[in-house]
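Narrative summary of target 7.
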Amino acid sequence: MTATGTFLPKPGAAPLPRMIRAQAALETRMLLRNGEQLLLTVVIPSLVLVLFSTVDIVDTGSDGSTVDFLAPGVLALAVLSTAFTGQAIATGFERRYGVLKRLAVSPLPRWGLMAAKTCAVLVTEVMQIVLLTAIALALGWSPHGDPLSVALLLILGTAAFSGLGLLMAGTLKAEATLAAANLVFLLLLVAGGVIVSLDKFPGGVRSALELLPISALSGGLRDVLQDGAGMPWRDLGILAVWAVLGLGAATRFFRWE
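Modeled conformation, tokenized:
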């Protein structure tokens, strides 16, 4: 105590950026310690990449190498598994067990928690992308295109799926979130252009599927990394709309308990 009624350190909340960094670091450690999460986010995309690149199971509709078609789609799958499915399930059970209820009485605002969770997802995705890229290169992948376009697609894709995952976790019961998140994951794996080209679908269905965030992410990554295209503005626009809608709805309707 330095003077009457004055205490050091000064009581009160830490600066908001520091709170978000601390929560993001905690969320990252929790993600990496969860075996089920690692199975979903690392093992499954890696197996999909290796299996479908080495065994002639699915007609990708591509004239080039199979791995050149699959690698961008698997990168999109990694974002989906981490930012949406894994995060929705983990956050849903945190809400059920009262973890979020305790965080609700802390100075960390609701949007700050979402920002911290999204940052943790981005850290995990960096490790995923490094691993999947190494596997794809070992299988003969020859990527092209602008790294900036790839980074923008991955960041907007992460924001879009993170918002949707948090919206689901913050509004449904944990068991419902578990079932719904896994079901959506499987449906988008098949119908999102990840391992099956959207050209295989009828015209009307394809037009609707192209508006999904997974289709925009996998299609944009494929245009850049496989075909060497420029900035995929249409796909970036679709992802930006989903990101704004998802994060906005999550901020508005997310319930702590």
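The chain has a mean pLDDT of 84.
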